[in-house]
Amino acid sequence: MSTSLLYHAFGIRGYHYTRTDYQDGQTIFSIRQEPETCRCSACGSPQVVSRGRVERRFRAVPIGRRATFVVLPIPRVECQACGVVRQVKVPFADPRRSYTNSFERYALELGRRMTIRDVALHLGVSWDVIKDIQKRDLSRRYAKPKLKHLRVIAIDEIAVAKGHRYLTVVLDLDSGAVVFVGDGKGAKALKPFWKRLRPSKAKIEAVAMDMSPAYREAVSTHLPAAQIVFDRFHVMKLFNEKLSDLRRALHREATDVMQKKVLKGTRWLLLKAAENLDEERDEKKRLREALALNQSLATAYYLKEDLRQFWEQPGKRFATVFLDGWIKRAEASGIKMLQQMAKTLAAHRSGLLAYYDAMITSGPMEGTNNKIKTMKRQAYGFRDREFFKLKILAIHETKYELVG
Ligand SMILES: [Zn+2]
User: Fold this and answer.
1) What are phi and psi of 231, to 5 degrees?
2) What is the DSSP letter of 308?
3) Whole-model pTM?
4) What is the pLDDT of residues 165-221, one digit of tens each?
5) Ligand 1 centroid from CA 32, angstroms
6) Which residues pair with 55 in a beta bridge?
7) Cα-atom radius of gyration of the chain, to the nearest Å?
């Protein structure tokens, strides 16, 4: 083995190659450091006296399928200037880790194309070793995103585990990047975000969120100049939940077997946007049949499709007329679920109309949520909460496999 191969293949320079051993399918290179090259690791002084060695074994990049290790007796020296005994620096590895820097870079590179599990399997190390390597890399690059440029944001909570465990996510709506992930939900979860936002001097103009009071007050307090927009995505989600409740109640009350069956099969059709109904699968016909059977379900469905038009108006004036008209029709419908919805929308009228000033929606948040859901389903789930949060911060980056 030449010293230049040591450098070019394993990232190790400035050592003497001693020998190679082959044990149990592993390749082990022994190297050593010449005493005259030893320096104090604190002050860099060459005025040092040898005080023995500590043998360390580092995992290096494999040669093909063979695990490869580098064994180095690390010199301990007493510095004449400091008067302290220390190990000399090891430039090719972090002394706290059991692998070389080039091994770490290689594992990161593989992680861009493979799952953690696959990388770990391929390199013959544990899942945690690869996870920790990725975690440090993610932390270096994403732990503290720049906030100065923020202009329009969306705030949302996501359920991450059973038992109502939540994370609060803040999204930059201009870039689609996640800029903050907080523990829990509501005002408290946002505290660290305000703390980082203030010194950034960002001028946030508008914030998209759902209609619950959870974040509303916090945003009014910390961003008094920002416009709050109760956005389309959340309004329609709420409506769909209520529509599902209505269908379920009607199904429960139905006595006719046929009617029960039709209602049962329409759950997803009711929530689908009308233009997305699949003609080939008879979805339009099936929905029409279900709606014909039940007047209140039909009214609720058509008012849902109608409400979507609120976000398609040519301007705020038209939108105002539209919204007020919708609220009146829902109130007059005699259907409790629609009347409740009308009440909610009336109470949030200005925040709904604010869409026509800021023109933002949490649409991109929906995409982010779906990616988070995919991550959640993966094996690692919640084994490391901080890692999970970092992965969310890096979610718009394609450099990593989302799966674990
Ligand atoms: Zn020193």
Assistant:
1) -90, 165
2) G
3) 0.81
4) 899 999 999 988 999 999 999 999 999 999 999 999 999 999 999 998 889 999 999
5) 21
6) 73
7) 30
